[in-house]
Queue: 4 jobs
Job 1
Amino acid sequence: MSTLEVILRAAGLLAAFLLLPLLVGQTEHKVMAHMQGRLGPMYAGGFHGWAQLVADGAKFVQKEDIVPAAADKRLFRLAPALALIPYLVALAAIPVHPGFAVADLPGGALFVLAATSVGILGTLVAGWASANKYALIGAMRSAAQLIAYELPLALAAASVTLAAGTLSLGGIIEAWEPWWLMWQLPGALVFLVAAVAELQRPPFDMPIADAEIVFGPYTEYTGLRFAFFLLAEYGGIVVMSLLFSTLYLGGWRGPFDDLAGWAWTLLKGFVIALLLIWIRVSWPRLREDQLQRFAWLTLIPLALLQLVITAVGVVLMGGAS
């Protein structure tokens, strides 16, 4: 790969990472406005509230950047970058078109899961460095949530890699068959729910439960640093949606995928992002104990069952061939 090609791919990745989360954020504003009768996001700028994100950006830029006197200032300033950059790295390994990924890795599935796991460190560091008891409680809740939901997420993805016989995301897409939608359905449900919890989105947003701990790890953040945490959340939605479409929906596979593969990838990812937004609007927040029980007593056994079903299926198909 030439230096020019590396530069062009990196520039394209950065442009996509700046654009796609903003599109998801704008979509969330509109979906929530329609489903919950919110009038504000429908009027900013005129037609259908097209300028809502512009207004939000202007608001964050104008706010004062405050660092608490008792905070660990270096870590406090570093935390937003720790939350944001891992999703940029993960996005680089997701193939969007036949033969094209910014970083085509043999172990792409493992790499993306590892990178998204690092993203939670931004939340942990933010809570600890803020020198605020509510922020620290939120950070501890984030740590407990990460431990509980990382395992079912990894087990569900492991089932797909076992079925495909490869850790390469491109290889998984090539091996994917439409009947996998039924064969891998339990794992897909586990992956989707665990992804929502990993992103700390409602109904799994206990780390930022405003009625209990103000805004959790982000309580002391203002201005652009707070905006970076929001961008990281939407970036996480983009990565998880595209990863789900790659593992369970065939990624770029579709009619005329040699030309329109990238469009199929984005379309499938957008549908999953809409589903994540719908879940946020429709479900109330769980209690912390309910969250833990649901992970350990429901999702993990279901993911293990899916893994057993996949292993049996692979052995039977191997014997038949």
Job 2
Amino acid sequence: MRRSTLALLVLLLSVAALPQFVSAQDWAKTRLDASPRHREYVTLKHDGRSVQAFVVYPEVNRKTPVIVLIHEIFGLSDWAKEMADELAAAGYIVIAPDLLSGTGPGGGGTDSYSGMDAITKAVSGLDPNTVNADLDAAADYGERLPASNGTVVSVGFCWGGGKSFAFATHRKDLAAAFVFYGPPPSEFSTITAPVYGFYAGNDARIGATVPATVTGMKAAGKKYEHVTYDGAGHGFMRAGEDPSNTNPANKTARDKAFGRLTSLLKALPGGSASVARPAAGASTPQMAKSAVSCHSPGSSAAIM
């Protein structure tokens, strides 16, 4: 077989596999596309590295805290962006960095990979120090935004939950770290922020780490509060929204956990934002149309 023919065959097989990967979260993309909130992509630069980040702004009438959202092991997926939008709807600026930025084919990020397995392997291989530096860049950017009140928290899911906990050991001005079914760091002594855990009852891989985390955080004199949702499985925040979910406990856990998260956020300094509500009779299609016209592809910025 000629080399050019073989290369073409590999390309076609990769493209053929891509639609199945992309369509798995079409429901999340549909919800995001209908959002009236302003969203944009920015380029965060540090140490010669460029990181693409998805940013969503709330519709509020005052300065608000900033959430650094840390994606799952599945990269900056449609669901991660949709969750960012949901948190913005609750009244917070949300910055979700694509931690795979520059690692993919052609120097791309999550979207440049051929499928879920490739993304999972790439995320698993990320250097922890680089991840913290990327998260620092996102937090620094958020602190400087004119609409920010300077309060920054981290919220992470799955792999990102573990990174949210690890970020708390690294960043001293973090106001809180929220850990959704992620593993703990190896030591707790440098943590200065309260840590809040959200765990699934049917997730022994992560659940088995909780008793030692409780003991370790208490011994280190750190604040750690956690809740375990019976019957739910790992990844219940995403699964609980997925229309194909077959476990009712996932949806119950998702709703309760989101309520707990937003309640804790409101307790932060300046955390109770006044969210602007749509006018009576405003239709979703009109709002979606407005969002599309506002969020043009050229909306991005390079941040040093």
Job 3
Amino acid sequence: MVATAPVELLEPDKIRPNPDNPRLIFRSDELEALEKSISQQGILVPLTIFQDGKFYTLLDGERRWRCARKLGLHRVPAIIQEKPDRITNIMMMFAIHNARNDWDPLPTALKLEELEKELSKQLDRSPTEAELAAAASLSRGEVRRYRKILRLPDDLKSQLLEELNKPRVEQHLTVDHVIETISGVNQLVNRGIIRERSKERLINSTIEKFKASKLRSTTEPRLFARIARSYERGEIKKEVILEEIQKFHSRKDYTIENIFENTSMVFDFEYSTEQLLYRTIHRLEEILETNAIRSDSLAESIGQMEKILRRVKRLL
């Protein structure tokens, strides 16, 4: 934010945090690093605040303010801005922090929901996606992502908030883990492999394995969708999949990859290979029709493929 007023020195105890700050989580390990820097060099960037009665409210610099109080500093540098109304306050908070990459998605989504409510009051209608994005200094894609996060079940949002209070090195569950898990499990439900009442149990088992670091790849739940498609093509029986899912529930170290390997991996590989060959055949037919070979390297590649195909055919 561009300074519009001179820097003043104020007592930290006269400053209050902003209730509309989308940043809800302040990790102790990160604060300790900043605290060390401030103890050595002081606060190099002034806080941005506005006056609210006999106190001041933060617009920018809550981490610096927290560290100053912990260090027992008697004065902190601050720039005083005019007091905004609530909707402008939220918009300013988003704008100030828009370029920062350390915001957590879930708290940001929750604050975006509040901004949407305030805009609805002001406009007397729900804001469009474009209007909400502009107000929050976000892209429309980011707005869609945050809205998707808001649709997560309340119990999973609570688990995510608990996880966010841990130091980063101890966090094993993220918003993306939860979103990928729900999406993958839904594929099994949509194809009738598991019932709706079994969905929650499979989601919870997957979430717990992420939290215990038994699952490490964020995209591993996508294998559920590949298993579901294999079932839909008639390559694997439902009973086999359900037996593997039961192992997943009961065995601590059993992963989604284990389920995939024991159900659909071979079929999935063959199917994807078949689709790739189909696309290659189609492209080669286009070459025959247009006589499109113009380079020696393409002719050489086709020759190498011909040799490999002869070797593969002998295995069939």
Job 4
Amino acid sequence: MSVLSKPYFHDEQAAFDFVESILWPQGPICPHCGGVERIAAIKPNPEKRVRFGLKHCGQCRKQFTVRMGTIFEESKLPMTKWLQAIFLMCSSKKGVSAHQLHRTLETTYKTAWFLAHRIREAMRSGELAPFGSDGGQVEVDETYFARDNRFSSRGGKNMKAVVSLIERNTGRARSIVVDNATAKEVGKVVADNLAKEAHLITDASNVYKRVGATFASHRWVNHSADEYVSKFDPRIHTNTVEGFYSIFKRGMRGVYQHCSAKHLHRYVAEFDFRYSNRVKLGVDDQARAETALKGVVGKRLTYRRPDGGPEAAQA
């Protein structure tokens, strides 16, 4: 049976049941008081507005659904469409544009754009554990991004830098957006995200020289001299992180085509998530979508902050 023929992609009650099974594996939890006992399902009343998944907590006497406290909260979009969007974004190697989502899901472009940002927020792991804590090798490189989705190996005016780390032992990726790829800024990113036991591998850029001395070892290849794999040790190369960048750049140029600098960190998190949960690591499309679904809790985005400031999705 095709994955897209699953009941939860087409039946709203089945969609709520599926989300509840992922977010509440031990049973419903009241988001108001945290209670797990005396929770009863409220039967939908077809004569009024049907609210799927509505429950009543006997402890605090309040009503709730599994949407509360997640990226789904206050959304009028059916849960079936949310699940379809999550699956499409997780199964598309280079991403799926908001225009494609708006056509496929039959929503407005504005709705598709915003739900895509919410899903990217769910993909963001927020993990802070340093790479290379097992004494493994970690490749680090940087690339530069301009507003027109143009990339460069060298910086320039109005260009953001993306510093990416790939942990070879686990295959995980972690990328951080910085304003300038100076030795100070890049050095801080590397120092904050690598364990001292790690073996750092980079190109010959000077931005890594000082921070590299603080790890178990620092080896590099000189691309300017056409050296891409060390003559003395074939393990010394940055081909893994370059492969990650090839997917990222093709996705940003060919699928998204335009990205504002203030949204770049969310797109980077999306590509990190798919790379760290790819088939080569034993994660298929369905498992990847379920992993993203587990990340929806506590990451609600709103169009505007309570203080009337800029849109939270654009922060």
